[in-house]
Design a protein that fits this description.
Length: about 300
């Protein structure tokens, strides 16, 4: 990776509808003539899409994953699920995993119509991985390759979810929960302090809090009481499961059991050393980019065997 050659793609805002709700999308096109495809990034429970995938930190090359992949030749997109960021946040928005998967489908269909995109490389993180898996289950033809980062299947052995369940009555009482700078800090301190630079955490907090001062409870309720949501047998596309070494959202045992049930033999399980939960904001973010880039650019097998 040549950090000296960093290029910044100009971003473009887009809007579409899901039902009568407005959905915000953001695009950064490839900066190279050789196009490698289109990446759709799906955000998690506690921050909107641009802070997660297009974070700008002076002096931190390619702090924006969208800039990095655009420079590698990918057209890149993210979107805010209903209840987050610049998308519709009207009262009554539940922002469940299923609704987030539907939002991802609406975003993908908009891009297909606008750009003629046939299928996507899809990356989701945390509850965004559950949403991305939901998109893949609902529209397998849309997903060429699926990357699930900080994913959870049954929740068994998750100390993060065990702690969160103690507050489940509060999540059930209201539609939204307040967030502040201390909350953003807790994302980086709950598993293994020191995996992210302080300046990156502060820039991340600034970006998140510029858009939201509260977050919907829908994904928290789902992850605390409704797992498993994803059926691995329905994920027929090539899939990678990415787990940070210190991430507390899912145990290795839970993820390995999920991985074993993925039907496509074109699958990978990647452990990311020195990483806790928010992969792109970690000190080892270049390692995360490398794993994801390698998976998205892997050639298709020329021989599959009689069973295929």
């Amino acid at each position: 990776m040549s950090m000296a050659a960093e290029k910044l793609s100009e971003g473009q805002e887009h809007w579409t509808k899901i039902g009568d709700s407005d959905l915000f999308l953001f695009e950064k096109q490839a900066t190279t003539d050789k196009k490698r495809g289109t990446v759709l990034f799906v955000h998690g429970s506690s921050m909107a899409s641009q802070p997660t995938f297009d974070l700008q930190v002076p002096g931190r090359p390619y702090s924006s994953a969208m800039d990095r992949f655009a420079d590698w030749g990918f057209d890149t997109w993210c979107f805010d699920c209903r209840g987050y960021g610049r998308s519709d946040k009207r009262p009554g928005t539940k922002a469940t995993i299923a609704e987030g998967a539907a939002d991802a489908g609406a975003a993908a269909q908009y891009i297909q119509k606008l750009r003629g995109t046939k299928s996507f490389y899809v990356y989701g993180i945390s509850s965004g991985a559950l949403r991305a898996a939901g998109l893949a289950e609902n529209h397998p033809d849309m997903v060429a390759r699926l990357a699930l980062d900080a994913f959870v299947w049954t929740g068994e052995g998750s100390h993060t979810l065990a702690e969160r369940r103690t507050r489940l009555p509060n999540f059930r009482e209201g539609e939204r929960r307040p967030i502040d700078r201390a909350f953003v800090h807790s994302v980086f301190n709950r598993d293994h302090p020191g995996t992210a630079e302080d300046r990156v955490v502060e820039a991340f907090a600034d970006a998140i809090l510029s858009l939201d001062d509260s977050m919907p409870n829908g994904t928290y309720r789902d992850m605390c009481s409704n797992l498993p949501i994803t059926d691995p047998a329905r994920l027929t596309m090539p899939t990678i499961v990415m787990r940070g070494e210190y991430d507390g959202i899912a145990s290795f045992e839970d993820l390995i059991a999920f991985y074993a049930r993925l039907p496509n033999p074109d699958k990978q399980f990647a452990v990311m050393p020195g990483i806790s939960h928010a992969s792109f904001q970690q000190k080892n973010y270049e390692l995360v980019y490398h794993i994801l880039h390698s998976f998205f650019t892997q050639p298709d097998p020329v021989y599959r065997g009689e069973q295929h």
